[in-house]
Amino acid sequence: MIRTTPEELYLHLMKQCLTRMLWREKYRPITSSVSGWRKLVVEPLQSLLRLMQWEVVRVEPDRAEARGEGRDWPLEAETMVGLKRLDNLQHCVTSVIRDGVPGDLIETGVWRGGSSILMRAVLKAYGDCSRTVWLADSFRGLPPPDPAHYPVDDGDTLWRYKELAVPIEEVKANFSR
After folding, report:
1. Distance of CA 129 to CAs 106, 111, 125, 172, Å?
2. 6-25+60-176 adopts what CATH topology?
3. pTM for the complete prediction?
4. pLDDT 10s digits, 117-133
């Protein structure tokens, strides 16, 4: 797709920034990739090193394709949905504006707020000041699965990842930047 208008160029740049596709994450802390007995060794070491503002990291392979499709877990990005889904979100919000569909916008389960930041950017790029972008989240991460009520959740382990619990203050700070 050829981007020619200032709005399209701005929104493309915004998506590149929100996904960290503009600059790649070169390193990842080792604690994010170890488990079992290795985690018992690495986590205390990392805690000690952080006191001196050091960290044991590994080189991060280039995951441009996975990032574009939202198949990886970005360390620094404001969103993990990937460029393809952000393109779709932009198309949806642009269609709402173009077609005069009334109402506000909402994202539920916002993580770091990246998709909502894009929604607000689309509204601003096209001069729509009549809508509010709402965010709904517990800001505590995912709850443990309840297979008695939701059998498909049986065995899900995502609730264990503390990285999914992003405080509301961090999300607000992401909007402020």
Report:
1. 15, 25, 10, 19
2. Rossmann fold (3.40.50)
3. 0.83
4. 999 999 999 999 999 99
